[in-house]
């Protein structure tokens, strides 16, 4: 037991390695538990591993109980006293009393000024039907046709977003899952209410992985503003904005400080303009704010809950569609169903049904019709797949038989797409439609090619000793620093393709890795850059968005995005992720793939690339000007850049090593041909470049002391 050790993450032993013996004899175990465990171990009934598990379980249970006793019950988790003090919910005096053990969290929680932030049961809890004097839940009122579906749903979403689904009859507050299990709400509302409950439990930022608030999710466009505003309004007028990380409400000024709310939004929510009334008053059928509905409520004398009085059933709408599946259920079902696409170039890439329904593979009217029929239960998923494949196959036959489309590396492009993007004019479009011009001739026009393929990126480099080499080979041979080379390769991927300048091939990132043009160690980084062409998936809407849109939603770091956007503008224009070709500047602005402010910034101030010859910070446009045009490819000349090796005090050139007879001509040739790298030669010559080892100090045997030479001199 003295040999087995464990490191605890809590309690007085936090961060320390403790032996099993020490923990067994600590206050975590009673004397009875201690003796019983030692007896079982000695008799061989439990192994050391089993004993370790038992003891860790006992320690964890004790710590959990201690945490529960010393903290406050929040909306979903226990809240320490210092968190409430930091959020200005309790004052310094109360905090000190808690720390000294002179009061308890339970006693402090009884204060209404504290409890309203911890639990917050000030939402509209239910309905009071005046003619029958009956009190009922929102869901019951919906089922009894006293409330319209949309009216009741918005009130239930407000409950979920403010902490709990409320049973006003039993005076219970339940999570959404608990409410469904208890029959307080029906399973058909489960997904929608879980979505609203994220306002309490937090939204996951898809790229940082961090938990964020409702307001932050709205700011990042992870939730639509029209969905967020009613929930924020309900929080604001039912006790305060919720901090999902700390699991409690906070005073408004603290919410501002934490950036989980803003004064501008607070002001908007306080206004009672028509645009700011997302709820419906079931009594008058007029639009209302959450505060206006709350002001109409009666406070139940038994429970203290807010109950909305109703004198008569709410009038039904003229037409109210009913669906078998909610939007969330539909998305979940379709996301989990794979489909093989019968289209050239996509046949080996299975997609899920939801992605297909949000792509340009189907006409918009067909997508809407299929979704409507599936949600209403008219067709099954299996039937939907058959219909989709039939539509795609028919479109593919038409496209292949038509002289009005052209196959590029990534996809087949139609003349409608070219005309809509103003890449060809109306006259050319009409001549193509009439068969008076051949689309292949049009595709060879410089004015068209510059948008379809770009005007050319930095394709490779040239050196004194070699004609041309790829960016990746230049990195490997030591002509380019790894970070400089990677940025140039990312720019290639983000402007269309990875280039093999030796074979004059344009390749997708996957193809480039398969053919060895770039190494697998940078595959993921280049795939990420390639999404500037193929589009980013919005994690909440499921739709494909552009690089600029991803930047605005904080899905891509701004400095990285601006660098890649500047490279796109320098090589033909911003790329449309739906059609995957460059766009004229005015069309990119119209389609929302860039805005004027960012466009001006790209022209004036973005210098995200380094000239490998002199280390100058340049824009991609300026870097292209330093390239030589050779065989239609832009090659960056490294003629003035010499291979250097790290010496004792400075970089040593290859010429200096030759003159000192440290390397021979064969090594030089192997370096230039890429057979050897600078790193390999440096390791081989380290004794010349950096030395081996000198006498570093003195070891005093009598005291086992290690001294520097100077210390040894001083001691004498």
From TrEMBL:
GO terms for cellular component: anchoring junction; cytoplasm; intermediate filament; membrane. It is found in: Cell junction. Its main location: other. Keywords: Cell junction, Coiled coil, Phosphoprotein, Repeat. InterPro entries: Plakin (IPR043197), Plakin_repeat_sf (IPR035915), Plectin_repeat (IPR001101). One of its GO terms (molecular function) is structural molecule activity. It holds the Pfam family Plectin. GO terms for biological process: intermediate filament cytoskeleton organization; wound healing. Transmembrane segments: none annotated. Residues 267-287 are annotated as: Disordered. It comes from the Eukaryota. PANTHER family: ENVOPLAKIN (PTHR23169), EPIPLAKIN (PTHR23169:SF21). Belongs to the plakin or cytolinker family. This is PLEC.
